[in-house]
Amino acid sequence: HVMNTMNSPNTTNCHTHGLHIDPNMDNVFLRADPGESLVYEFHVPVNHGSGTMWYHDHLHGSST
Q1: How far is 54 from 64, CA to CA, in rounded Å?
Q2: How big, in percent rounded to 5, are the helix, strand and coil portions of the chain?
Q3: % of the chain residues with pLDDT over 70
Q4: 14 near 39, Cβ under 8 Å?
Q5: Residue 32 pLDDT level (bands cut at 50, 70, 90)
Q6: Can you give the pTM of this predicted structure?
Q7: In contact, 42 and 21? CB cutoff 8 Å
Q8: What pLDDT is recorded for position 40?
Q9: Which of 5, 59, 61, 54 is nearest to 32 (CA)?
Q10: HEC string for 7-22
Q11: Rg (CA), the chain
Q12: In Å, how far are 35, 46, 51 from 16, measured between CA atoms?
């Protein structure tokens, strides 16, 4: 595997940081190619701790 090269610039996904949610819904290996879409539904536990939680999009191994 070659690091630091262009990797699927037109492919994306969305993942979170800081949320304790089902890893099947926060899967960095899901991918949406051009013309495709992904539907996310996050179930955050009612007793989830407070903090700074955020999400962003990019395919694992590729970022801008």
Answers
A1: 17
A2: 0, 15, 85
A3: 80
A4: no
A5: confident
A6: 0.59
A7: yes
A8: 85
A9: 59
A10: CCCCCECEEEECCCCC
A11: 14
A12: 23, 17, 13
- Cα angle 15-24-22, degrees, rounded to a multiple of 5: 85
Contact between residue 17 and residue 53 where contact means Cβ atoms under 8 Å apart? yes
Give the Cα separation of 28 and 58 in Å (integer): 9
Burial 11-20 (b: 16+ CB within 10 A, else e): ebbbbbeebe
> Which residue, 63, 47, 57, 45, is CA-closest to 16?
57
- What gap in Å lies between CA 21 and CA 42, rounded to an integer? 7
